[in-house]
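Example record

Each entry pairs one chain with its bound ligand, tryptophanyl-5'AMP.
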Amino acid sequence: TPRVFSGIQPSGGLTLGNYLGAIKRFVDMQGPEFETIYCMVDLHAITVWQDPAALTRNTRELCAGFIAAGIDPEQSILFNQSQVPEHAQLGWIFNCVARMGWMQRMTQWKDKAGKNQQNASLGLFAYPSLMAADILIYHATHVPVGEDQKQHLELTRDIAIKFNNDFGVDFFPITEPVIEGAATRVMSLRDGTKKMSKSDPSDMSRINMTDDADAIALKIRKARTDPDPLPDTLEGLEDRPEARNLVNIYAALADISPEQVIAEHAGQQFGTFKPSLADLAVAKLSPISTEMARLMDDPAEIDRILARGAARAREIAAPILRQTYEIAGMVGAV
Ligand code: TYM
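Structure tokens for the complex follow.
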């Protein structure tokens, strides 16, 4: 069975973007067709400063979010990255495969480092090489992510190809990004040209998975829109990024296509559409946040789930690391 891997950073609360662009699709891929491995990437999170107590809490909360949203920790392997040292070990090998120039082209590096690149951590620069290791340490072939991770997945392919060529082997698979559905890029509720993000200074720009019903309804009611009603075709949403975003969010939450949303709501004013969207969002998200809060009452149980997941992950990762070392000529690898 083909293997699915994906990861989320425990660097803050989960947003609706993380849920619709990632977690909900992780849940959809769970089943007999794939072996599914999902990771809280704490080693990635610390490429920018994380308060230790907050990192602990965010990792547990992310785990609770995965489970509350429908990831079954028996069926999927659910764990945090630092408990499986093979990620960092393969990451080092890949640091020696990847080229500086490849990393310098990464738009996320340029965005996150900002003007003062000299002051960014070395880890932030090397981030995509560790990400390639996350995936390839399991020989995973399918990686569900939001649109913003596409460039990193192309680099993952480049690293696999270069490793295979350098050593004359056919060892690492070429991974497929799985970027599908209506919500591969959920936008800010305040600005339809910016991605919804946990790091946006305005809390009104995003829906957090821990928001209560009132907060969700308020944020949707206040979401920026244009004055026109909804059109009767999808083409009518071109150049209307905020309207398009709300239609996409509706579609993803309701598990229907944006076309169907338009067909059902054509001609509606936002004064009518927004309350429907708010009701739908509350109906879908409230059970998840309630369950997250319940799971967070027992952190020891969450820690047991993560430890068990890590042990299962290592059973796959350890032999692949050993073979990698052997290919590279490391004494003692076999
Ligand atoms: P991260 O933690 O920023 O985001 C986790 C996942 O959520 C998706 N996402 C979105 N999707 C749609 N709309 C949005 N507004 C939105 N915001 C976030 C992201 O695309 C991602 O799928 N580098 C990764 C974590 C990572 C990883 C990996 C992913 C580390 N190793 C290996 C896949 C495979 C990241 O920073 O995601």
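The pocket of tryptophanyl-5'AMP is lined by residues 5-9, 17-18, 21-22, 41, 44, 131, 134-135, 143, 145-146, 148-149, 152, 183-186, 195-196 (CB under 6 Å).
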